[in-house]
Amino acid sequence: MALNEAQRAAVETLTGPLLVLAGAGTGKTRVVTYRIARLIQSGVEPDRILAVTFTNKAAREMLERVSALLPQRADKKKPEISTFHSLCVRILRRNIHRLGFPNQFSIYDRGDQESVARQTLQTIKLTSGTLRPGDLLNKISDWKSSGLRPVEALNSARDTKEYLCATAYSRYQARMRDLGAVDFDDILLLTEDLFAEFPDVLTEEADRFDRILVDEYQDTNMSQYRIISGLAAPHRNLCVVGDDDQAIYGWRGAEVRHILNFKRDWPDARTIRLEENYRSTAQILGWANRLIDFNSYRHAKKLRSVVQGDSPRILQCKTGEQEAKTVVASIKQRLAQTKRSPRDFAILFRTNEQPRAFEMELREAKIPYTVVGGQSFFDRKEIKDVISYLKALVRPNDDVALLRIINSPPRGIGSTTLAKFREFAIAQQISVWQAIQPDSDVFKLLDVRTQEATTAFRDLMRGQAQRMRANFSQQNVESFLSAVKYYDEITRMYADETERKARMDSVHEVLDAVDAYLKDHPGATLLNFLDDASLGGPDFSSQQDKRSKLDAVLLSTYHAAKGLEFKEVYMIGMEEGILPHHRSLEDVSEDGVEEERRLCYVGVTRAQFRLTLSLAVARVKRGKLKPTIPSRFLYEMTGQADNPRYLNIKSGLPGKVTPERAQRQDRS
After folding, report:
1. Cα–Cα–Cα angle for 482, 483, 489, nearest 5°?
2. The model's pTM
């Protein structure tokens, strides 16, 4: 095996707790996949190995690489490689009834959650002016990521707004339970509850595996940490791989202390450091190493490279507009003078406002580009409609899905009728599906025409559900959409041919995903498919990954760029208040700035051969041009942190930082 000494040690350590500190570009994926293959070669049954990561893309890539390393087995056993959420969904499908949920629970996306949050706020008589559904959900997600249940959230409330949120949190959870639904955060919390309340469930799930491997361990939140600790406790064969220097998700509950304290949790653990970098030049790594050394809470490590290259550049421009022009002109020049393609370049930014000027300049220069963070595949109306139709087939008691599609296309069940059904359902604590049954009191009060329309819809859905249970296939999904006249609805809604085609294409993408899913999972049910779709599974990820295959300059946030690499990287807006972000500067502890420094480190280590950092002397804020202060990270990377006032930025452009200008900026 073509492994260096440290990599080989990680691959060959097959028992006991193991911490692999894998610096950026040190061949982490290679080590993880070779280690799984080595376990199987040593006699461990493939299906007794669990490997957990954070994205479907990473899980898919890991499984593909492991399969390529090993000959096909007659028994077709494979290691269980999945995301945390996919693992927990499977556990919940087997056991969630013990917590009072149906095993065929629905998984709600953000739009579904907002519907429930809006109902919740109405129930406790709060207007959207007092508390918006989105703000409530953000707060609930923060609490859940920290492992706090409603009672704990109520006890920890620090002001009136948090008290209102905690009260709504309790009602929100109760309503979700009534609907037989869970949200993304619940998937982890309820698994943790299962293990805590029913030790036999934990024992049964832990007994399924002899070896556990966790990728990106620095990104685990408290629930994930407890779930993995519980599953690994009986055999203690736990290998965690990660890099505390790339822990950038504290804002969503990830706790870097889990990787920092691994030796405390598992005192007999072996630690192996991967420090030989295969991505970047020694000059780029020199800047990265100097930068991250300023963080206090980290495992000591230093990236090394034998590849030599140019020193990183700093461009200082007069204004934000000039910065965009300069960076794009630089990319245009590089495209003309080298064999580089647009996909070899990335422009990394910290805030959502930053890329606008760069998009304008790229369009002007006729350079193709793509922006990470645009509309999600699942945010398109047609996708949400089709998924809601399929959810209503599997579980008609899912009110959010049913109410979305019951009168789309119009079938004589108008908004007034739907309001009656919804109010009756809430008052009787039943689902809307139960409210539209012929024996319900509200149904009996409807006029004959509305009763007939409701009955026709009910019978149609029952017949289609029976057909789909007998044979879940792409053809039956297409026939179902025809039966409910959804294609006719698109034709009716969009007279413009181009728009209509785009909408139809969205529906066809779902049908393609069904076909691809069934090829990979023969005999799968519609419920299996919906679980995968709710978690952004591989067949849906492939639809979103198309963008990454374009030959285009990538404009991306630092968070979205993690795990990627580019021949040339431009880090823009290197100023105090942007990077580090102004919110981190308000943190009395150093935690906020340390995470921003890690974010900057992630940006630097995306670059393979050429790194450029840019900043503006002044930016327009509230209509006025105001001076900026260069980011402290520039001083740290260039070894001038002891005397940052005299940073010498060699840009070759007007507007260099001189001592006098730096002093003026410091005073401002």
Report:
1. 55
2. 0.83
- Spot the catalytic one: 80, 183, 216, 532: 216
Least confident of 366-370, 442-446, 620-624: 620-624
Q: Decide if 322 contacts 618 (C-beta within 8 A).
A: no
Q: Quick check: is 224 catalytic? A: no
- What are the beta bridge partners of residue 348? 556, 571
Catalytic residue among 7, 28, 224, 417: 28
> Which of the residues 218, 246, 322, 628 is marked catalytic?
246
Strands 345-349 and 566-571: parallel
Encoded tokens for 507: 């529906």
Burial group, residue 420, by CB count within 10 angstroms (0-12, 13-18, 19+): middle
Burial environment of residue 91 by CB neighbours within 10 A (0 to 12, 13 to 18, 19 or more): buried
CA 553 to chain centre: 22
The phi and psi torsions of 235 (rounded to 5 degrees) equal -110, -20
> Token pair for residue 17?
């707790």
Residues 31, 283: contact at Cβ < 8 Å?
A: no
Give the CA distances from residue 293 to residues 186, 217, 366, 665, in Å, rounded to whole numbers and listed in that order. Answer: 37, 21, 40, 26
438: which DSSP letter?
T
pLDDT tens digits for range 526-584: 998 888 888 765 555 554 455 456 899 999 999 999 989 999 999 999 999 999 998 88
Using a 10 angstrom Cβ sphere, with 0-12 exposed, 13-18 middle and 19 or more buried, the burial of residue 263 is middle
Q: Determine which one of 13, 29, 55, 123 is catalytic.
A: 29
Q: Tell me, yes or no, if 499 is annotated catalytic.
A: no
pLDDT given for residue 103 in this prediction:
85
Residue 557 known to be catalytic: no
Alpha helices in 42-159 (DSSP H): 56-69, 84-95, 110-123, 133-145, 150-156
Distance CA 510, CA 495 (A): 22
| Residue 503 is a catalytic residue | no
- 29 as an active site residue: the answer is yes
Annotated active-site residue in 215, 344, 361, 539: 215
Distances in whole angstroms, Cα of residue 521 to Cα of each of 36, 55, 76, 263, 516: 22, 19, 13, 39, 9
Could you report the per-residue pLDDT of 148-193, keeping only the tens digit for each?
899 999 988 888 888 889 999 999 999 898 888 999 999 999 999 9
| Residue 92 tokens, joined | 């919940």
Tell me whether residue 588 is exposed, middle or buried, using C-beta atoms within 10 angstroms of its C-beta: 0 to 12, 13 to 18, 19 or more. exposed
Where are the extended beta strands (E) located within 485-591?
Answer: 553-557, 566-571
Distance, CA of 302 to chain centre: 29
Residue 453 and residue 629: Cα distance in Å, rounded? Answer: 66
- 350 is annotated as an active-site residue: no
DSSP reduced 3-state for 182: strand
